[in-house]
Amino acid sequence: MFARTDERPIARWWWTVDRVLLGAVLLLVVGGLVLSLAASPPVAQRLGLDSFHFVKRHAVYVIPALAVMFSVSLLAPRQIRRLALVVYLVGLVLLVLTLLFGAEVKGARRWFSFAGIAIQPSEFVKPAFVVLVAWAFSERLKRPDMPGNLLAILMLAAFAGLLVPQPDFGQTMLAVLVWGAMLFAAGMSWIWIAGLGGLGAGGIIAAYATIPHVRGRIDRFLDPEAGDTYQVDTAIQSFVRGGWFGRGPGEGTVKHSLPDSHTDFIFAVTAEEYGIIVCLILVAVFAFIVLRGLFHALREQDPFIRLAVTGLIVLFGMQSVINMAVNLHLMPAKGMTLPFISYGGSSIISLGYAMGMVLALTRRRPQSEPVLYGFAYAGGGRG
């Protein structure tokens, strides 16, 4: 496609980006379009919309998502940090505005309308938050006098403090888990990890004791007789009905009764129409992306890049696991989308932003350091 001697930015990008990782992400994007075609028409019909309303919008959202992913993947690590700071600060402002003026949907204020477009600010804050926390931890490793841990805690507190009032406990839990994984990857002492783990457990207990919404979800998970578990029960049945090879495209029935079949429960629709084999292939693609990203992080010597890639990949992987676990009734319902598969404009574009940063940070760059783990160090020339 491009000669190796070609010095144009696009040519340099092509020869330095991880094309295998890029291909896996694009495979998920295409899979999302196909599965949206299977899951969303009944939802659109129930709402009195054109049958392919959500399919068309999904396709429209994919275009800016890919554009964002490509554009961000061209950036240098220093530019990644600066962009993350801007996105994080603007996102926090939008989160405040969402609490004040956002539309209430199903008892939650998570969306802010701008120029007629609904935006979920928390989706964009997540990847930016991860990169800034990686910077804070890495600076602490480089300079012991730098209050990196304190900065990371303050960033988590600011983000979580604006998520809980929405309320969005699923995103809060995800942010805390990713933050904890990065703390562990940064090599912090077990005293820190145990202490913060205890605070997290205490937070869950306090939420269960004081917030009926949280208590209801946990009670329904532990005891199905404690409340309405229709969506989860229907999702489980879809796996039984689909079997190994599915009932065939368009032959599923679960999508006609699940109100969130195109978002939270698209994995269940996949199981019924395409079978468990296709679900396992989907899981394998997610696992490949996670392992490929962690492989890149493992061979990095630059603390910032290592922690940022680790955090972004853990964010991607944990969100995937949570969505699929809810569909299989392995954990309480969280309202979490399946990356690149579920319908959702803010989710798809923010995932493009996150994976663009992963592609940027894992690009091969001029070699100037010794070999690590049998691979040439790719950290030279980074800002």
TrEMBL record:
Q: Which residues form the signal peptide?
A: none
Question: EC number(s) per UniProt?
Answer: 2.4.99.28
Q: Does the keyword Metal-binding apply?
A: no
- Superkingdom in the source lineage: Bacteria
Q: Pfam family example for this protein?
A: FTSW_RODA_SPOVE
Keyword annotations from UniProtKB, A to Z: Cell cycle, Cell division, Cell membrane, Cell shape, Cell wall biogenesis/degradation, Glycosyltransferase, Membrane, Peptidoglycan synthesis, Transferase, Transmembrane, Transmembrane helix
Which pathway is this protein engaged in?
A: Cell wall biogenesis; peptidoglycan biosynthesis
Membrane topology type, per the record?
A: Multi-pass membrane protein
Q: Where in the cell is it found?
A: Cell membrane
Instruction: Tell me what reaction this enzyme catalyses.
Output: [GlcNAc-(1->4)-Mur2Ac(oyl-L-Ala-gamma-D-Glu-L-Lys-D-Ala-D-Ala)](n)-di-trans,octa-cis-undecaprenyl diphosphate + beta-D-GlcNAc-(1->4)-Mur2Ac(oyl-L-Ala-gamma-D-Glu-L-Lys-D-Ala-D-Ala)-di-trans,octa-cis-undecaprenyl diphosphate = [GlcNAc-(1->4)-Mur2Ac(oyl-L-Ala-gamma-D-Glu-L-Lys-D-Ala-D-Ala)](n+1)-di-trans,octa-cis-undecaprenyl diphosphate + di-trans,octa-cis-undecaprenyl diphosphate + H(+)
- What Gene Ontology terms describe where this protein resides (cellular component)? cell division site; plasma membrane
Q: Which GO terms describe its molecular function?
A: lipid-linked peptidoglycan transporter activity; peptidoglycan glycosyltransferase activity
The transmembrane segments are 20-39, 59-76, 83-103, 146-164, 176-209, 274-295, 307-328, 340-361
Tell me, which GO biological process terms does this entry list? cell division; cell wall organization; peptidoglycan biosynthetic process; regulation of cell shape
Entry's family note = Belongs to the SEDS family. FtsW subfamily.
Specify the protein name.
Probable peptidoglycan glycosyltransferase FtsW
Which source organism does the UniProt entry give?
Tepidamorphus gemmatus
